[in-house]
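The instructor's notes for this session suggest beginning with a concrete chain rather than abstract definitions. Hand out the sequence below and ask the class to guess, before any prediction is shown, which regions might be ordered.
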Amino acid sequence: MSSSLAKSPLFLFFACYLLFIQGTLGEILCEDLPTYICAFSIASSGKRCLLENYENKAGKVEYQCRTSEVIVERMAEYIEIDDCVNACGVDRDTNGISSDALHEPHTTVKLCSPACYQNCPNIIDLYFNLAAGEGVFFPELCEKQKFNPHRAMIELLSSGGSGAAAGPMSSESSNYLAGAPAPVFF
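After discussion, reveal the predicted structure:
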């Protein structure tokens, strides 16, 4: 989403409305969220929200926010902030929940960057679990990303999460990961 949308009066009104409704009713339902904040949100039930597309009666593709069956153990009633979406290099227009982004070197570098890894527990928790589904330990992937991003991608693509020796450090990845400790979960 563009930052100009976040500054528009309609967005501000809707954000205030959401806060009012959440404060009054005390819950977030994915189906009630607008599509532009759906991805990376967590309902009051602790289940992740996901953006889905469907074909309407006129044959046009439309989007809707739905509740997934994926439960987040330590968080609920959470709408991801734009700072984390930007720091982690993820896209709010993402349909469904998929590990595909882990296969993009640029996205993995951003996910493993201190700005994301240390400050965005919701997104890190999601990709930690997606990586585990691929047979990869996310902190290890980030560590390997520091030293040899290309080898880390090859291992991820082969779902070989471990075993290969690290190569020389890439200057691009070392800038992102200098001293990044494990994420802090709430």
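Then share the key points. The two ends are 26 Å apart (CA to CA). Confidence is low (pLDDT under 50) at residues 160-182.
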